[in-house]
Amino acid sequence: MLILLIKIAFTQPIINNDEDAIDYWTEERMANAQPIIPPTSNSNEITSNVTIINDISDSGSESLFAIPIAVGKLFFVHSGEHYTCTASVIDTRDGNTGITASHCLYSDGEYSTKVIFSPGYSNGKPRSDLGKIRVTGLSVPKSYIEFDEDDYAMIQFNYPGKLKDQTGAFGWGLTPASPIKVTTFGYPGNGDLNCPRDGKTCCYWVGDATIKNVLGLPDLAAWNVPMNLGKGGSGGPWVMRVGALNPFGYLVGVTGYVVGNDGSFADILNFTLIEELIDWPSS
After folding, report:
1. What structural domains and CATH numbers belong to the chain?
2. How many angstroms separate the CA atoms of 55 and 72, rounded?
């Protein structure tokens, strides 16, 4: 059962009481879940706890790269179908908060159910030490629910202790000038990345993100990279490195949508909105 808790004008956080979610996601269901197709819009220095993946970079990237286990695969049910997106752990006081795309948690007037997160998911399997973590809070911006704006949303993990202590976490709260070099992460099932694109492997791309007007509208701008990051990559973090402030880097946005042949877009983060989104109801 989903209990709707309306907080303020910015958010509609809910508590996800799918207590059987972990058992529901059997190995077979996880293997058969489909990477969600991102919305399209047209004129109509990481340290320990990482997995090393070879040869999944585009030109200009390193041939070896450390994929942080703060990035993982999100599994959920929507309209009776099994889907996947990408999500990641962000740095918060509670240590059990993550971020993904809004369209992974809410679409067609419905919230997703039986949501779980598998940090460091690799080669089609959860990590043996972290496994599957139940997501008990979904916080989707009201601006997305009503206007399809702000395609990023927060998730709360049901984890004993602080998950970020096990995985690390991405910082946030810095607004860079455009362009900025970013690393994107995700679990694509298709797209332009030079990687397996099998939905089982965390892929990355390194390059410049620029702020671009979407559809030529001056009041609609977002971060853009010249790559289709693929279905299943939705919600994957776009991360910039800023010296030693946070060794995992700082979040610029998350993979949101595709516009024609212009590549993938991530809505510019509103940090005031994020503060509201992570104001979880007390239990």
Report:
1. 2-36+68-168+272-277 (2.40.10.10), 51-66+171-268 (2.40.10.10)
2. 19
